[in-house]
Amino acid sequence: MHDYLIYTLIAFLLSALFSIGGTGSGIALIPVLNFFGIEFIIAKATGLFAGASTTITSSVMNIKRKVLDFSFVWPIALMMLIFSPIGAYSSQFINEILIQYLFVLLLIYSATMMIFGKKKSLTKVRGKGVLFAVGAFVGFLAGLLGVGGGNILMPLLILLGYEPKKVAVTVSSVVPFAALSSFFTYASYVKLDWILLFCVMIASIAGGYIGNYLMHFKLDQTKTKKMMGVILYILAFKMLYKLLA
């Protein structure tokens, strides 16, 4: 029971902090749970479930408010919903050490984009084919690594020349459903700790609510993102040290 209290507190704090920065906490929660002795594949499934739990409400609200550009969203959403479960299913056949090294690269990439990334495009790429390709690539990689994919998808679309506000709405609407589809795929072949899932879910929802409140009324989002980036760098190097030890 003592361990579950620790996991609950960790999930709450990470969810609150990352919600202030406008993103999900799963990418940080997964390595932290792993450091505390949770199997990496179980930590991935738990992180997916926590992330989807905290963000699915905003997705539904975006759909109800009709702020989505469906011509832009549907190719990405379709490919992510197809390829996220494929990536999650493929995870059981790929060496876990390799997946953990890829996760380290994801942490470094995400941290770098949070601290140094600029909302400027490198190119002006358009067309449904590009959106299909992006959705398939991000969906498979997100499912394989056990993350929602927002940390990969958002900076990639901005670099390809899409408008940041439009991208943000799209990502917040698509990622939770892709995360859930990946979670149910992991649940089909991984023995999950349902008490852990419940504790993390409740803590993440509570932390997300408080984080969203602070984001709008109290704290500087830019400084918070830099703090999040530092945390992800620390997790990346700690994870790399553990792999190399």
Give the SSE layout:
Layout: H1 2-20, H2 26-35, H3 40-64, H4 70-90, H5 96-116, H6 128-145, H7 150-159, H8 164-187, H9 194-217, H10 221-244
Number of helices: 10
Sketch the topology as an H/E string, one letter per element: HHHHHHHHHH
Oligomeric organization of the protein chains = single chain
**Into which percentage range does the β-strand content fall?**
under 5%
- Poorly predicted runs are none
> Pairing-aware structural class of the strands and helices?
mainly alpha
Number of domains: 1
Shape, per Cα inertia axes: globular
Distance between the termini: 30 Å
Rg, nearest Å = 17 Å
**Average pLDDT, all residues:** 87
Largest sheet: none
Helical fraction: over 70%
Count of beta strands: 0
Describe, in plain words, how this protein is organized in 3D.
- The structure is a single chain.
- With 245 residues, this protein is mostly helical.
- The protein has one domain (2-244).
- It contains 10 helices and no strands.
- The chain is globular and about 50 Å long.
- The model has no long low-confidence stretch (mean pLDDT 87).
